Amino acid sequence: MSAKWPSSQVLVALSTALFLVSSVFAKCECGYAVKGQGTYTEAFEADFFHQDDVAHDKDWDVSNYLIEEKRPFTMKYDRKNVISNPISRSSGDPGLQLFVRGPTADNAPVSTAELMTTRRDMHYGSYRVALKYTQEPGTCGSMFWLETNTAALSKQEIDIELLSFKDTTSSPDTPINFVLHGTDDNNTGFASPNVTFHPSDGFHEYRFDWSPGKIDFYTDGQRRGTFTKGIPTNPGSILLNHWSSGNSWTNGPPVKDALMTVAYVKAYFNTTNTAAKCIDPEADGAVCEVPDQTGPISPDKATTFLNLNPPSDSQDTDAVPVNPPNPFDTNTPTDDQPNTHVPNPSPDNTCGGDRRYDCLANTVGECCSSHGYWYGYYVDLVPRIAAKAASKHLANAILVLIAGLPEVV
Fold first, then answer.
1. Which of 73, 154, 362, 369 is the most exposed place for a label (fewest CB within 10 A)?
2. Spatial separation of the C-alpha atoms in residues 335 and 91, rounded to whole Å
3. Which residues 6+ apart lie within 8 Å of 246 measured at CB?
4. Stretch 388-395: mean pLDDT, rounded?
């Protein structure tokens, strides 16, 4: 048995079906709701437990520059000190490694680490980092928001800073520093509450929620302080760094290599781009609830991401393979049987059967089933996508009305 379908109808049916399903059910298209704060339009998420190499990530710029001022030591942010260590190949703690090297030679700059988002439009929102801090005294590790308006007279900052020389096992408490360089170019906010965990014991989440007139700070989901004066008003970027200059703030430099490991960065925020992208805020999944992290993070347990493409070394059972197998073909390659298919274009738009013709103009491999239907894989794919949005009937309607194909049962 063979079925005759003009190649143009095949392509139109498939592309239209997938487009309509994805358009109707665009996940989180109307924003990200943070409890107690409101709903934000944008999401920025980085999963460093699974990222292969941050150096190839267009969302980040890894710093490589010298700070010549002696404080009392000079300092160099070196890109070689920012190292991806995903779970798939990790030794020790997985995640993004930020090193401060030590010891330094006489008069040599302290070798440190920093990276910055390429986005410069990050405004009011909820900003979170999960990290495990170093045990080596003499460094400062931080996540902070920095104003990127080069015309501004002052550089506004919102900082979360950890100091390793204050994280000692001799004390049950560890201070976490929340710092605000506000609109008047002064430290208009400073708080140093104690937490009952040691940042070097494991991965913990540090967070600030920034809204007009207020900034709230959190550790592992518990609010630790609030600033209400000098609140920044301009957009900016997020930075991660691990540094030491030997001054009274950091002490040090460390006598041996000090490592801070980052599990993730999550940001849900508004932006200076006001273009509307919300079609129906009442639709299922149009607004996504951002969960609170209420305890330590473990590499062995899944972490919720709302707007993240799965990295290549993660497992995603719902992901669609680039070259999908033919479910009707008993000769479909397996993991230990590589795909040796040789393109065999159909001369007359028929396909399948013993001839195993490819669909006309197909460029991604075999898509005709051995039962003679061109849609063997994709007739199953569209309902799978729609089922995730609880609407198999929509997929059937698209297939029947647009392509004239048999209804999926």
1. 154
2. 26
3. 71, 72, 73, 110, 138, 252, 253
4. 45
